[in-house]
Design brief:
This protein is of the alpha+beta class. It is built from seven helices and 14 strands. The strands form three sheets. Strands 8, 9, 10, 11, 12, 13 and 14 form a seven-stranded antiparallel β-sheet that branches. α1 (about 45-65) runs parallel beside α6 (about 225-235).
Length: about 250
């Protein structure tokens, strides 16, 4: 499709005006960043894999009645999504201790949590996306109490779906983060899952070996990131076998 006006460029994606009112074209870049973009690289094929994997997860959520912004994939790097007003919160669901939770609370990585724990971070790169409480969210008006109830419900439903899908292919869903957005149907407002769901936004460990199949491979210099993401895609049957090892593409 013809390139349209750029709306926004982030660390991993570029957003363009969509072909119809109320739509956006979301383009997945090969850029990889970690530690609030202090570590950067370009990983050949990463954007192709994240586009296809996010399509897979978003489509699955739509099919079970969890609303998302995803409309359809346009090509190997782009998808058409619904425009929405992004709630300025990252919503993190943790099933096992890892990453910053392990550091903050002194819990060994891989410890199963008594129940899924939902955390919130304020979306602001200049501040490092700080952890916030529901008190902060209410006080500063980032989301209403009804919004928070809906966000919690969405996050736990995504967790149930993702945990089951990954378990079926021998992968443990350690944690993940999502973003949500407000859309209006007439006078009625509702919240939907937005942004992306991919190995960039999840921690995925092989159940048998503990091998990391997510962005920690890049963060911790554990090997080839494309190989890790390709393994997730291979297990899920997202890409044809011939495309998994060397995803190609085409802007």
């Amino acid at each position: 499709m013809a390139r349209r006006k750029k709306i926004y460029e982030g660390k991993a994606k570029i957003l363009y005006e969509g072909p119809e009112p109320g739509t956006i074209v979301q383009y997945f870049k090969d850029d990889a960043t970690a530690f609030n973009a202090e570590k950067k690289d370009v990983i050949d094929g990463k954007g192709v894999l994240n586009n296809r994997l996010s399509e897979f997860f978003m489509t699955g959520l739509n099919q079970i009645g969890v609303p998302t912004h995803f409309i359809r994939r346009l090509n190997m790097r782009e998808q058409l999504v619904r425009n929405c007003e992004i709630v300025p919160l990252e919503v993190i669901v943790r099933n096992y201790a890892a990453g910053t939770m392990s550091k903050r609370l002194g819990i060994a990585e891989g410890t199963q949590l008594p129940r899924p724990i939902v955390e919130y971070c304020y979306k602001d790169d200049s501040l490092g996306d700080p952890l916030v409480t529901e008190e902060h969210i209410a006080a500063f008006g980032w989301a209403s109490q009804q919004d928070m109830d809906d966000i919690l419900s969405l996050a736990l439903r995504v967790n149930d779906f993702m945990s089951g899908v990954m378990l079926a292919v021998g992968i443990r869903l350690v944690d993940f983060k999502i973003e949500t957005g407000r859309v209006f149907d007439g006078d009625f407002q509702r919240l939907i899952v937005a942004d992306e769901i991919s190995p960039d936004s999840c921690r995925l460990w092989d159940i048998e070996t503990g091998q990391k199949l997510d962005k920690d491979v890049f963060r911790r210099d554990l090997g080839n990131l494309t190989d890790a993401y390709s393994e997730v895609a291979r297990r899920l049957g997202v890409l044809p076998q011939s495309n998994v090892t060397k995803p190609t593409l085409i802007n």
